[in-house]
Design a protein that fits this description.
The protein is α+β, with helices and mostly antiparallel strands. The protein has twelve helices and eleven strands. Strands 4, 5, 6, 7, 8, 9, 10 and 11 form an eight-stranded mixed sheet that branches. It is elongated and about 75 Å long.
């Protein structure tokens, strides 16, 4: 199938997507019976709608091969389950983006591959920390509070920052941080090697593992077994340390690990 034919097929399928999403009842029915089959009484109690309205929606979904009736219970077909699973993903992606709209909208996203952007729903529980004119170090302090408790750290590091380096060295000199993995560019490695203190305390530290890549890095990602921190660059290329994403749940850790593997 050519690219043009594929686009035509996708355009035709979009009408099916609109059919589901433009109807509150059809969408709610799919979501309501997603995990467990429901009978009409269950659906009426959960949706707070009359039987006639619910039955009309169920009939439409049956005709589209998304729902089937087994005895007195309505359940999703295999197609219905796949469609609803991806509809939930779309809703969660929308929620995640809208929740952090200032963070995402203000920054260059080119450092995050498309497959990771499609899974932004994994960051739905993240919180966003912004520095203010009255507290310019708010985001940085929140970041330091996270890394100071870690036993193991992985950092995709895009910038030469003596401030960050000194904090990392302080943690390495302590007893809590057991290991640090740095992913840096060739350019950043050359700059760090020119400073004897950073060269010996970071690059040549036995607790530190260095991975050097040729591409330019456009994200600052830090994660451990307990948290994820992400900062980005402005669209004009300048690094922004005033807005920080922090997450502490397994979904976010999964997202960070996948992104780290990509780099």
């Amino acid at each position: 199938m050519t690219s043009s034919e594929t686009k035509q097929e996708l355009t035709r399928e979009f009408s099916g997507l609109k059919y589901i999403l433009t109807s509150g009842m059809r969408s709610k029915l799919l979501l309501t019976i997603y995990e467990n089959p429901k009978n009409l009484d269950d659906l009426r109690n959960e949706l707070k709608k009359p039987s006639a309205t619910i039955l009309h929606g169920l009939k439409e979904l049956e005709n589209s091969n998304l729902v089937k009736k087994v005895h007195k219970y309505y359940e999703l077909t295999s197609n219905g389950y796949l469609i609803t699973t991806n509809m939930i993903k779309l809703i969660e992606n929308w929620y995640s983006v809208n929740k952090g709209k200032l963070f995402w909208n203000n920054h260059d996203l080119s450092g995050i591959p498309d497959d990771m952007l499609k899974n932004i729903y994994l960051l739905k529980n993240a919180r966003y920390v912004n520095s203010t004119t009255s507290d310019l170090s708010n985001a940085m302090n929140a970041y330091l509070a996270q890394i100071s408790q870690a036993r193991k750290l992985k950092i995709i590091l895009p910038i030469y920052s003596e401030n960050h380096f000194k904090h990392l060295i302080k943690l390495l000199d302590g007893t809590k941080l057991e290991s640090l993995e740095l992913v840096i560019s060739e350019e950043l490695e050359r700059s760090m090697n020119q400073n004897e203190y950073f060269k010996n305390s970071l690059l040549n530290n036995e607790k530190v593992k260095i991975k050097i890549i040729k591409r330019k890095i456009k994200i600052f990602l830090t994660f451990s077994e307990e948290f994820v921190c992400l900062t980005l660059f402005f669209k004009d290329g300048h690094y922004d340390d005033s807005q920080l994403l922090i997450a502490n749940d397994n979904d976010a850790l999964k997202w960070a690990l996948t992104l780290s593997t990509y780099y």
